[in-house]
Structure formats: structure tokens, C-alpha cells
Recover the amino acids of this structure.
């Protein structure tokens, strides 16, 4: 799992947008961001792509916590509540794990534990190259 | 449509990640980004969240080209081809437009016109506040 | 809620395919089917459309348990485990409820409580016509 | 392709619901149904599961038109227009084809060529067992 964390910590897009992995377990992960002006859209709320990226980072950490390299085939997101400030936490859990396919659900919540968005993604799992 | 462009051009998250709207029509839009190191994940390819954001920006421009304010209810993305460099263009088109709901498809292609990702999103349309 | 059950019990497609609502609460519902030859695809496993319909029926019952008429805007399903026999139960729960939009998750499980499929759908809620 | 058609024509759930494959090409397929009372929900319109099944059958025919056995990993559907009668045609096309993964889009239209639903599904492709 150290390798995964190293991989995920090299995620330049997440770093550039001040998102961080705060926890990785077997098939689980948590990521976090504190909302700044850079995360907002033209309406003054956190941009959908910022929420997606925070969830995707949790998915990437959780799905790469196993022995294989996992990449997303597809993902979907539901936007539940618009937010403009505060700290958001994305929590990923594994719904299914097969030889080459894994399915992960992610919830994003704010500090009041309100549900901000739900995310689901299917991972394709490859043997790591040496 | 000027208002939409103004709204979209104030998208701080898109600006912070060097994505730009290059075209807006009635229910259509194009966005573009030139891949830099800041867009990459730990595997050295463009992060899924960066692709999502580029598509989402095209969706936002297209869905806000109408007389109402449109926000995304949900969105899904399929990742077709990993890319590491070059200029990516997202093209949004309107599949359906009802009084309060609109559906939009976005394709992301590279300079060789290869399909990189497909995106679909459902917009909720609100009366603008004066 | 009596009205909802009446509405759902008139679902001819569900009836024709021997699916039944076994429970409806506020924002929740359970549906059930016992697999017969009519539910199978050419590979001998339960057809994706049959699983979708069972989940959709649970969604319809749950989303119509409120005071408004709810129709699906979109839905997605993940197929986790192929099954060929036994009784399948779909359980729907409400993730979010706004004035005109509701979000519901459904899980389908077999008698061994194994996860067969997950389903998510967004409802559009209309005032009932008198 | 004869094998595919044979496989798809043995789809008991589709047969039970009077849906038929009318065309199969390389990565493409068309399916059709004429709406009867058995396809309706409690509101008197074609049930979402019936539309899903018609689209899924087109997806199954298109994705199994290749040399491998294809099964759906996930699928999503957008419900555009409610219908109560007439003949519906689902047309599937291949968006992407990799060694183990294929992506397919399906459109359902009525006789007036109006868009009724859009469907997208990701196939997992397995070597056929001899």
C-alpha cells in the first residue's frame, strides 16, 4: 500500500487543486479538500469537476490499495447539495472486487456530515509491470 | 448568451486549471485545454477529474446558453483512451430540452480526432433571479 | 401510500414478469421475484433487463411513497454477480429528497444475501393531478 | 455472427416480452417491439424496464457480434419521452472496442423518429469456451 500512496501522492492534478489523501485501507480511502476560491464555478459554488476530482482521488487510492494497478473505466456522480466553503471529505468503499474488475462507491460530505455528492466508478485492474 | 459566457468565464476552477470556452451556440459549446504537468495523475496520464472538468465546462456553457440557469443533477463519464500531452477539445450538444430538464452529451477528442472520453449530464433549469 | 401501492400494483410489465412489491415505507420499498425460465438470457443467466425492472419497480414504489408523482429521469445499474435461479430481493432507499428531485439507491441480493446488482435513479417529482 | 444471433434469439426474457432482434452487423444491432398492454406501468406509459430491456437486447446483439462473448458490466439509461403505443426501435453502435472492454450507445426512437431514451453500456469481453 505504500506504493499506492506514493502513486496517489504524485497526482499532480489533485495536488495543484489542494486535495489530499488522508487515509488508505484495503479497498477504502478518504480524501479531503478545504474549499478555496480556486474551487468555485461562476455561480460561486464548488465546481462539479472539483467534487468529481476529490471523489476520483478517493476511488484511485482505494482501488490501488490492492496488489494490482487500477484505472477507471467509467464513473458517475450525483450532485446533491451545493457548497461554497468549508472542508469536504470523500470516503471510498469497495462494493465488488473480481479478478479484473472492481466497483467503488464514494460519498462526499461536509463538516456537518451533510451529503454533498455520491460517486460510483468501475475499475479495470491490471497486473503491475515490473 | 453574453451572460452565460460571462458566467462561465468566471469559472475559477476551470481557469485555475487552464481550461477555456472557445465556442458557445444554442445548446452547444466547445472547451479546450492544452495538457501540462498539472493535469497529470500519478501514472503520468491526464487525471480523470481533469477530463471530467473539461467536459463539465462544455456542458455548463451549452446548458446555460438558453434563457435559464442550468445546474447539473448528475453526470457520467467513460474513459476511452489515456493521453499525456497535446490539446484536448470537448464538444457539447443538447440531446433533449424540456421546461426544467435538459440532457447533454459531450465528446472529448485529441488533435488526431481520437475519442478520449464521452460524458453525459442532466441539467436542472431554473428561472434566473433578477 | 395506498395510492402508490395501487399504482405500482397496476404495473403490467412487472406483473407480466412475475415481480411483486412486498414492502413500501416512506422513501423505501422492497420488491421480489423468483427466477423462472422467462427471466433468463441466451447465456442462461437472469437477463439484465429483468434485474433492471426489479430494481426500477422498487425505485418506483419508494419514490411514489411521497405525496407527489415521481417519474425516473435516468437510472444506472452495475451488474455484480450472474444468477440463474432462486429468489431475488431489491431494496430501495432514498438518498436525497428535494422539492422536484429525489435520488434513490437500490440493491438486489439473492437468498444468500450476496449482492447481485446495484442501481441508482433520479426521480422527477410532479404535483398529482386531481 | 450466426452464433450471436442464435444466442440472442434464445433470450427468453426478450422473447417473453415480445422484443426481437431485426438486424446485426459488426458492432451494431437493431431491436424492435410493438407496445402492448404488457409493456405498460401503472401510469399507462411504457415501463422503464421494458425500454431498458429493448436497449439491452440491442447492446447484447451488437457486443456479441464480435469473436468474443460479451457481458454487461454496467449500463445507464436516460428517459426522454414517455410513450404508450406504437413500435419502438433500438439502434446500438460501438463507441470503443478494446481487447477486454467495449462501449456501446443505444438510441430508442418511435415511428415518428422521436428520441424516447438513450442508453450506454460497458461490455466485458471473454474468450468463448469451446
Amino acid at each position: 500500500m505504500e506504493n499506492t500512496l506514493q502513486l496517489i501522492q504524485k497526482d499532480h492534478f489533485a495536488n495543484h487543486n489542494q486535495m489530499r489523501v488522508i487515509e488508505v485501507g484495503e479497498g477504502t480511502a478518504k480524501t479531503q479538500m478545504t474549499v478555496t476560491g480556486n474551487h468555485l464555478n461562476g455561480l460561486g459554488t464548488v465546481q462539479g469537476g472539483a467534487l468529481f476530482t476529490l471523489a476520483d482521488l478517493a476511488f484511485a487510492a482505494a482501488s490501488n490499495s490492492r496488489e494490482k494497478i487500477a484505472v477507471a473505466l467509467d464513473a458517475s456522480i450525483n450532485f446533491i447539495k451545493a457548497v461554497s466553503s468549508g472542508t469536504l471529505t470523500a470516503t471510498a468503499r469497495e462494493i465488488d472486487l473480481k479478478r479484473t474488475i472492481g466497483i467503488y462507491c464514494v460519498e462526499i460530505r461536509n463538516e456537518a456530515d451533510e451529503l454533498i455528492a455520491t460517486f460510483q466508478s468501475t475499475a479495470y485492474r491490471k497486473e503491475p509491470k515490473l
